[in-house]
Design a protein that fits this description.
It is a single chain. The protein is mostly helical. Helices cover 69% and strands 0% of the residues. The protein contains 10 helices and no strands. The chain has helices at residues 8-12, 14-21, 26-35, 37-45, 50-56, 62-77, 84-91, 96-111, 118-126, 130-136. The longest helix is centred in the middle third of the chain and has 16 residues, at 62-77. It starts with 7 loop residues before the first helix and ends with a helix.
């Protein structure tokens, strides 16, 4: 639970809060996080930092990104070797849901036997043509 002295700025950093506030739906994003400091603390305990959290809240679909990352991290992504950094990198761009679904669906059968890690896959799917890149492997 969030302590009485916890503020969003103290938890993730003033710069990240200001950055989020300046984006589309910024006031709504900051208000959501301030109203849910316990969830922010939970992400921090899972190894996410202010930069990762600001990436999750970047752009549209931020609430869905947040819910998916926070609900699936411990049960899905952490056991596969993904960190907060990897997930924040993946959900920053367009098509994040398809990227997560593809990686999750193929990880044990395709990527893990080939020696791919969360770091490798996050780098591959970050830029354009990610589906073509995965098909070539």
């Amino acid at each position: 639970m969030a302590s009485n002295t916890a503020t969003l700025e103290k938890l993730i950093g003033e710069d990240y809060v200001a950055e989020m506030a300046a984006t589309g739906q910024g006031e709504e994003k900051v208000a959501f996080l301030e109203a849910n400091l316990g969830l922010v603390e939970r992400l921090l305990e899972m190894g996410f930092n202010g930069y990762h959290i600001s990436n999750i809240f970047h752009g549209s679909g931020w609430r869905n990104k947040f819910e998916r990352v926070s609900s699936d991290y411990e049960s899905v992504w952490k056991p596969l070797g993904f960190t907060g950094s990897h997930l924040a990198q993946i959900v920053l761009g367009a098509g994040w849901e398809a990227k997560l679904d593809r990686i999750k669906g193929d990880y044990e059968r395709v990527w893990k036997p080939l020696g791919f890690t969360g770091s490798h896959l996050a780098q591959i799917v970050t830029n354009a043509d990610w589906e073509a890149k995965l098909k070539r492997i």
